[in-house]
Amino acid sequence: MSISLSHLTKRYGADTVVDDVTVEIPESSLTAVLGPSGSGKSTLLKLIAGLESPDEGRVVIEGDDVTDVDPRYRDIGFCFQHYAPFRHMNVARNIGFGLRVRKQPKDVIDAKVAELIELVRLDGKAKSYPAQLSGGERQRMALARALAIEPRVLLLDEPFGALDALVRTELRQWVKELHRQIKVTTILVTHDQDEAMEVADQLLIMHEGRIEQAGEPTELYERPATDFVHGFLGPTTMFKGVSVRPHDLELVPASEGAIEGTVQSIMELGFEVQVTVALSDGTAPWVQMSRNEFRNLHVEIGSLVSIRERD
Amino acid sequence: MDTPAKRPSSELGAPPARKGWRRFSSRARSSLGLYGGTSLIVGYLSIIVLIPIAAVAAHGFSFSIHTQGWGAAFWHWHLSTGFATFWNDITQPAAISAIRLSLWLSLSVAAINAVMGVAIAWVLVRDKFPGKWFLEAFIDLPFALPTIVVGVVLLFLYGTASPLKIDLFETWMGLMLALLFVTLPFSVRAVQPVLESLDGESEAAAKSLGAGGIRTFVWVVLPSLWPAVLGGFGLAFARAIGEFGSISLIAGGLGRTTTASNYIYNLTQGFLWTNAAAVSTALLVLSLLILIATNVFARRIQRRLA
Amino acid sequence: MNHTTRKWSLRLVVVLYLGLLVGLPVGYLFIKAFSHGFHAFWVEVTKPDAIAALKLSAEVALIAVPVNTVVGIGAALMLARRKFFGSRALTLAFDIPVAVSPIIIGVALVLAYSRIGWFGSWLASHGIQILFSPIGIVMATMAVSLPYVLRSVLPVLIEVGKDQEDAARTLGAGAFRTFWQVTLPAIRWGVLYGVTLTIARTLGEFGAVLVVSGNITGKTQTLPIYIFDAWDQNFDTIGSFAGALVLASISIVALIILSTLRARERKLHVDLA
User: Fold this and answer.
1) Which pLDDT score is estimated for B211?
2) Strand blocks (E) in B59-193
3) Do A297 and A223 share a domain, yes or no?
4) Which residues in chain C have Cβ-Cβ distances shorter than 8 Å to B38?
5) CA-to-CA distance for C204 and C190, rounded, in angstroms?
6) Are residues C107 and C91 part of one domain?
7) What residues of chain B lie within 8 A of the CB of A72, using their CB?
């Protein structure tokens, strides 16, 4: 195990932001810490980096207990939500900062910086200052700066949060690709479940300072351990008194022995169609289906239909 | 054992660290820095400000500590008639008249500049005309100019040999002019940012409801400006009541133009330190009280607006 | 009264008030100086007493400004980056020197450190004299110019945030390197602003210095005191005027630097309070 956290707890006054977190993060994985804002996920990241110190518990990285080690000596690459570029240094000097701290010879630094600039596709920007870069470029510079010290662990705090939608999807793919190349154990914090499902090979769901569930994305999606995980990872609707995924329900023509109801509303979202059905027991579950399924169903508002769980 | 590729830090080497330093936990080092730094700063602050101010108050009440040789660490406490002496010192007719003069001058100066401050800030923020930047630059001038320079210039301009034939030497008007000059930036700069932050939407709303310009100003703009105006008033008052340099020359040597700070200075020239301490204490308490009062009042208004 | 008349009368009132109150005296200072001719001015400022006063002022500034800059930056770092018990009180204590009359600051220093003061006899027994000496002048100047660096740097430090410093730490930088290579460059304009204010205040300080200095010509006279003394004691109005002109020129240069810096950094403002 690359990182293991045991009984990690952090309090701010009366608030327990991180509450008795025990978790193992596998070597070379790309783990996403997913949770709503205020769930303590950023604090957890800072505890691993040493930028915050825990009230209780230990942080072990590759077998070394680093709980009382200064962030300087943890060999961690940290990317901040707003990138924290050194604004008075150009891209090359930003990236080379950690190497200068480690008193590397100038030619080693230059070679390494050039290599990283190419890796993060900032060719030609070496002499630019952060103010002259776009958000995505700044993000990539911050990544290169963190990677320069060849960290044991890469920590990304809401790495795509401050970017616009188009750049965000592009950068997600790129980070995934980058991770495939360099295989450094990476933890990223996000509140966006699509982002987490897309990028990560391990998920860690946090809620109110606690870990709700950890595991592979599909496993969590299919076998959520708690209602919170179930609700957080995808859409849900109430059917027969339990929470189910709306794509696990289906509508069939009325009078086939299933529960009957009246179509209350129809929302067509391109490929996907959401149909809400009012049942006689007063509940109104909604069903997610493809456009084709909807066409074949021939229903409109007011139609009588039957609803059941898919096989 | 991990491969070098997975433990690349061994290749680059750890960041340089002083020997032994790493043994302290990061938390221990961080509190060491906090306590070390804070005690240095508090120490410096105590030596140059806090202890001396305490000494004034103590001397004002004739309460003194004499150190009799540090080695013996022997402190001799001496408490004499205390409040009686203090009261006697500050109720001297000359002291009373000096404090009274300072009080009414400072209050009127702060009031005049509060009104003018709003007018000036209004013109600087809302009006546009060529040469406005020049006015803007003027505002800070009284702050940047050393007070004695203001004193010399005003004495030249309004002294006995006034080229304008306006002789304000040894008159309250001369004092007032000097005080208006030095307190001007406080009144303007307190109001200006607040006026800038008002977006004009509520004004537009008031006008659309048929309110005239003056009515809009009084009923819509002024209520949001009040805390800032009061804040500026407090600052100007505090500055005026303590002011010395700019008025020291034009005040001359007459009793009726001797302000509180002038009076204290005169006492020090006669080496009457205990009397000086008593009047200083009174003045200190007075200006702190007014400052606190305006602060509390301004905060209360702010809360009502929020 | 219609809108236009109101606008013009307000302009007129403001321009007249500023013109008469501020413009007239300051303009007069420079006009008068030139009417005497540059030569007369030069003769006055090169008198030995004037030179000595200028020198003492410069020496005092050379000690007080660096000390207050270091203390101000240090205190700003503490207040911006740490939460600790008493931080509110510390901020307040830094503001005392501007809320209190400089004359009282002078009296306070005398009552604490002169022969008649709390620590006077002990200091005297160790050969340290505060009253009537340059040490007293330096202390008085330090006290009155204390808050300016803190007040200029603190808002900039809060605006810049802690992230760059944290980033430097995770990259392995120690406290010193982080300060010199990351924090200081980020707040440099704020520091320069505060230092300029401190210099202006240091060179111009009058009341507090007058009380502690004892006003000994050529020995404990700073430039402001020389100006005062030339007029008050020696009736040397031209000498006094020349000195005032030197100080006024310095403060106008300071003012230009300040407004240039303000144009760069919006967080900076003349927070005179």
Assistant:
1) 72
2) 63-67, 75-79
3) no
4) 78, 84, 90
5) 21
6) yes
7) 15, 17
* Beta-strand pair A237-239/A210-215: unpaired
Distances (CA, A) of B129 to C5, C8, C11: 15, 11, 9
- Tens-place pLDDT, residues C200-229: 999 999 999 999 987 666 678 899 999 988
φ and ψ of A281, to 5 deg: -80, 5
Mark whether B106 and B53 lie in a shared domain. Answer: no
Q: Is B71 at the interface with chain A, CB within 8 A?
A: no
Together in a domain, B9 and B111: no
Q: Which chain A residues contact residue C182 at CB under 8 A?
A: 86
pLDDT of residue B32: 73
Residues B253 and B122 grouped into a single domain: yes
Mean predicted confidence (pLDDT) in B159-168:
84
- Looking at the structure, do residues A179 and A227 belong to the same domain, yes or no? yes
Chains with ≥3 Cβ pairs under 8 A against A?
B, C
Q: Residue B112: pLDDT above 90?
A: yes
- Number of structural domains (chain B) is 2
| pLDDT-based confidence at residue B5 (cuts at 50, 70, 90) | very low
- Residue B177 and residue B55 share a domain: no
Q: CA–CA distance from A103 to each of A96, A106, A108, B19 (Å)?
A: 11, 9, 10, 17
SS (H, E, C) A163-226: CCHHHHHHHHHHHHHHHHHHCCEEEEEECCHHHHHHHCCEEEEEECCEEEEEECHHHHHHCCCC
- What range does the domain containing A53 cover? 3-232
CA–CA distances in Å: residue B95 to residues B230, B278, B281: 28, 10, 12
Q: State how far residue B182 is from chain C, nearest Cα, in angstroms.
A: 9
Note whether C167 contacts A86, CB cutoff 8 Å. Answer: yes
Nearest to A69 among B12, B16, B26 (CB): B26
**Same domain, yes or no: C3 and C57:** no
pLDDT at position C269 over 80: no
pLDDT class of B1 with cuts at 50, 70, 90:
very low
- Total domains in the fold of chain A: 2
- Main-chain phi, psi angles of C103, to 5 degrees: -60, -40
Domain check: are B252 and B108 in the same one?
Answer: yes
d(CA C163, CA C242): 51
Name, in order, each residue with C-beta under 8 angstroms of C158's C-beta and a sequence gap of 6 or more. C80
Question: For residue B79, is it within any domain?
Answer: no
Q: What CATH number is given to the structural domain containing A294?
A: 2.40.50.140
Same domain? C29 vs C159:
no
pLDDT tens for each residue of B233-290:
988 998 999 999 999 888 888 888 899 999 999 998 888 888 899 999 999 888 778 7
Instruction: Examine residue C273 and state whether it is found in any structural domain, yes or no.
Output: no
Structural domain span for residue C16: 1-33
Q: Across chain C, which distance is largest between two alpha carbons, in Å?
A: 76
Which residues does residue C138 pair with via DSSP β-bridges, in sequence order?
Answer: none
Domain boundary among A232, A253, A268: A232
Domain at C197, CATH number: 1.10.3720.10
- Other Cβ atoms closer than 10 A to A221: 17
The backbone torsions φ and ψ at residue B239, rounded to the nearest 5 degrees and listed phi first, read -65, -45
Instruction: Say if the ipTM goes beyond 0.85.
Output: yes
Chain centroid to CA A216: how far?
12
Q: What is the number of structural domains in chain C?
A: 2
Residues of B in contact with C207 (CB under 8 A): 147, 244-245, 261, 265
Q: Does a structural domain hold residue B280? A: no
Tell me, yes or no, whether C187 and C256 share the same domain.
Answer: yes
Sign of the CA dihedral A129, A131, A133, A136? positive
Q: Which of C207, C209, C187 is nearest to C72 (CA)?
A: C187
pLDDT tops 70 at residue C23: yes
Whole-angstrom distance, CA of residue B154 vs CA of residue B147: 11
Q: Mark whether A291 and A155 lie in a shared domain.
A: no
Question: Is B17 in Cβ contact with A73 (below 8 Å)?
Answer: yes
Each residue's pLDDT tens digit, C114-134: 887 788 778 888 888 888 888
